[in-house]
């Protein structure tokens, strides 16, 4: 790692407190991004892409402290100011800022306009697919006191569609299982399809075990009321 990126990496580490978005997540995103860049026909500015990957989650602390904030927007501005203060031109720092501002999956967010932004988006989303994505989601939801699942009036696990539900089942059903449709590059899309098969197997096994446990619970409660 050259000195320019060492400085960026050290700054990134000083901003990270979330175990689901730790430095290993950053490394995985960067490695995936470089791999994508090497396997698509478009010309990619690796310097811009690398800086954007390293800094894309530096706004997480602010969003955790105030959920009304968008970590992509906050992080984009933090990255811009840090880079310009570190000697980057306003033009290049602005390109990094644009990539970071557009990397979020949530609806209503402006999609990336540059190839570097699209690669960052795809690389970041790849880290939510597969078993790594399942594990990261469980870590994140546990840290935010969100349950594995909720049960409906019938005592059986919901499909994640109860009013106001926030649970792993909800997150998988409405986000993780639909990620394949959101990729910008065919190369990343194909990787995602392969990884999502493993995530689907885990989800189905989890639902089966949860359903079995809920059925046992119902029988237990019925016996208690006899």
TrEMBL record:
Coiled coil: none
One Pfam family here: HD
SMART domains per record: HDc
Residue span, HD/PDEase domain: 18-138
CDD domains (UniProt xref): HDc (cd00077)
Entries under SUPFAM superfamilies matching the protein: HD-domain/PDEase-like
InterPro entries: HD/PDEase_dom (IPR003607), HD_domain (IPR006674), HDIG_dom (IPR006675)
NCBIfam families listed in its UniProt record: HDIG (TIGR00277)
Protein name: HD domain-containing protein
Origin species: Candidatus Faecivivens stercoripullorum
